[in-house]
Amino acid sequence: MFIAWTTVATRQDADRLATGVVSRGLAACVQIEGPVISHYRWEGRVERAEEFRLTCKCLPEQRSALEAWILAEHPYETPEWIVVRAEHVAEKYLSWARTSSSTPPL
Fold it and tell me: Rounded distance, CA 60 to CA 64, Å?
């Protein structure tokens, strides 16, 4: 299983992306956290922004399609997109993710 993160500026964008991902079968689950405060440098200036973090849980066969869809639909010019492989996933959760992800998209 992979865990992927991105952030957006509004709860509306977070909900739109999360709904789109799950309804298309691109991830088993998306959690939204926030607002979180981000501090970063953009175009030579230090910025501070409230954002909402999306955490996507996907299977290996979903990873590429998930990334392509998120990057195409993301409102940011340069979206955060970080993906890591889960070292361990409980068997019951992994089984649920496989079953959930095999359901045809809406």
Answer: 8
Q: What is the pTM of this model?
A: 0.90
Spans of all domains in the chain: 2-101
Cβ atoms of 57 and 27 closer than 8 Å: yes
Kindly report the CATH number that applies to the domain delimited by 2-101: 3.30.70.120
pLDDT in tens, the chain (106 residues): 999 999 999 999 999 999 999 999 999 999 999 999 999 999 999 999 999 999 999 999 999 999 999 999 999 999 999 999 999 999 999 999 998 876 555 5
| Residue 19 CB contacts under 8 Å (≥ 6 apart), including other chains | none
